[in-house]
Design goal:
This protein has 3 helices and 10 strands, in the order αβββαβββαββββ. It is α+β, with helices and mostly antiparallel strands and 221 residues long. It has one domain.
């Protein structure tokens, strides 16, 4: 009798245990990121905190570098003959980045200060910490229906650059264990590419270095 009662109680508790193990997600919609190119203004939002869903600038990154997970660049990468948008990690531990402006490692070397102050404190190479965020373009997954369990089960390759991203692309990521993200996995979807809404940039329409990507983000809690 006691064994039957214990078995009955264990059966009642099983759904609660299963529910406790479910993988929850945070989602952020319509987060923008500018595709800067060449020397940059420290105020422009060319970076994002994936854990907070907040747009950052070079100056923000210099002040709180553990909160910047992904950056955006518009230009030629890896000997490409055409310019395109790339999402990249603030650091790539697989290579020794050359910060030389004209012959360095793109896109990292391009995130300097203004032309009058290229080695300013907010230049990417001068940050006291640069997150290692793994990034990989992913095929065959529906961003909108992807669950926490599905995302958490994915394996991220040892890549820190997603090249030639465009509307509809889905990027799998894993944040840096030493950053605020604590090694969490997630997905980014490119939902739009838009011109700078600043009226002063009306004559720059269609130029990638003045455009911004709109992102939807899912990240495991």
């Amino acid at each position: 009798m006691k064994k039957i009662l214990l078995l009955f109680l264990a059966t009642l508790m099983l759904p609660a245990v299963t529910e406790a193990k479910s993988v929850k997600l945070k989602q952020f919609n319509d987060v923008y990121i500018f595709g800067q190119s060449g020397r940059n203004s420290q105020k422009k939002g060319s970076a994002v905190s994936l854990t907070m869903g907040v747009t950052k600038a070079l100056e923000d990154g210099a002040n709180d570098p553990k909160d910047v997970d992904v950056m955006c660049y518009f230009g030629k990468v890896n000997h490409s003959k055409v310019k395109f948008f790339s999402l990249f990690s603030p650091e790539d531990p697989n290579q020794n980045i050359d910060w030389e402006k004209d012959g360095g490692t793109s896109p990292w070397c391009k995130f300097e200060g203004k032309s009058s102050e290229p080695d300013a404190y907010y230049a990417l190479k001068n940050w006291k910490h640069r997150n290692h965020t793994k990034l990989e373009k992913l095929d065959g997954i529906d961003f909108d229906s992807a669950t926490g369990e599905q995302i958490d089960a994915l394996t991220v390759s040892d890549s820190y650059l997603a090249e030639n991203v465009t509307v509809g692309d889905v990027i799998l990521f894993q944040t840096d264990e030493k950053g605020y993200g604590k090694g969490k996995k997630g997905l980014i979807k490119i939902v739009a590419i838009e011109d700078d809404p600043d009226p002063k940039k009306a004559d720059k329409k269609g130029q990638g270095q003045y455009q911004r990507l709109t992102l939807n983000i899912k990240i495991v809690k």
